[in-house]
C-alpha cells in the first residue's frame, strides 16, 4: 500500500505518484541522466524494439518465475540494483528495500554509497551482495571487503564504469547536496563532504571525484580477486572484449550496463550490447542486464536474449518513495506478476525456457 492508500496497478502509476511526492531536486537526482540524456532515453527505446516470437499450444498447466540467480535460489530472475542514498526517497531507505527484497526472494545489491551501514543492510537483506567502486584509498576499499565478508555477504558487485562521474546536468543546475541526515556512512573520513553546497556544481559530484580513483585498471580487478574468495560480479560492461577480460580475471558474473544513462551519454543502450556479451562470455559466467528495465516483459526480453536475469533500479526507488517497504514490495510484485503472465503467453514454463524464444529487433538476435 502506498501513502495514498491505493495500490498502483503498474510501474508507470508508481512513477507518477513518486514524482508527485518527492522534492524536485531529489526527483532529478533519481531520474536524471548525463548531459543530454540520450543514453537514458536509448535504454527504453532499445528495449521497446525487442520483440519476441511467442510459442503457442505449449500445454502449460503451471508456470513459475522461480529459478537461480547469482548462484542462489531466487523468486524471479531479478535483483535490486545498487543505488546510492536511498534515504533521500524515504526515511527507512535501504532498510525498507532490503526487507522487501528479502521477502520477495530476490537478491539485494547494497550500494557502497548507502545511507545505511554494511552490517545493517546484511542483517535485513538476508545476506545480500555489496557494490564497490574503485576508491583512491585502497586501504578503505580492503576494509569494506573485509566487513562484507564478516557480515555474510554473498558476493561483490564491482562497478567499473565510473572513472569520473558523468555530467549530470540536472544536479548541476540544482546545485544538489545531501541533507544533513543522509550521507555515505560507510565512507566516513573522506576529504570532501557531499553536504556542502558548491557553486556551479553538484556536491555529490565533487565528493565522488575526491573519493574515486580515475586510473583503475585490469590489475586492480586481479588485486581484488586475490583478496577475497567471494564471488565477483563486474558491472558496467558494454564491449564484449571487456566482458572476456573480466571473466579471464575471475569474474563470476558480468552486468551489461550503461549505468542507467547516468555516465557516458554516447554509450550504447544496454540491451543492444547484451547479445554480443552473452556470446563472448558463453557459459563461463552469468550475464545480467541493467538499464531501462521497467516491467516483467523487459525481464523476459533479457532472458530471451541470453541473460540470466536483470537488475531493477529506479522503479524500486519509486516504490520506496510511495510507501516505504510496502511500496517496494508492490513494485516487485508488479514485476513478478507481469513476468509470470509474459512467460505464460510466450509458452514458457519457467525463466530458463525463455532462452529458446526467437527474438526480433536487436543485433545478434535469432
Automatic annotation (TrEMBL):
Residues annotated as the enzyme's active site: 259 (proton acceptor)
GO molecular function: FMN binding; oxidoreductase activity, acting on CH-OH group of donors
Domain (FMN hydroxy acid dehydrogenase): residue spans on this chain: 3-364
Keywords: Flavoprotein, FMN, Oxidoreductase
Chain sites annotated for binding FMN: 82-84, 131, 159, 235, 257, 290-294, 313-314
Gene3D superfamilies per UniProt: Aldolase class I
Coiled coil: none
Matches recorded under PROSITE patterns: FMN_HYDROXY_ACID_DH_1 (PS00557), FMN_HYDROXY_ACID_DH_2 (PS51349)
One Pfam family per UniProt: FMN_dh
Residues binding glyoxylate: 133, 168, 259, 262
Cofactor: FMN
SUPFAM superfamilies the record matches: FMN-linked oxidoreductases
Domain of life (superkingdom): Bacteria
Family: Belongs to the FMN-dependent alpha-hydroxy acid dehydrogenase family.
Protein name, entry field: Alpha-hydroxy-acid oxidizing enzyme
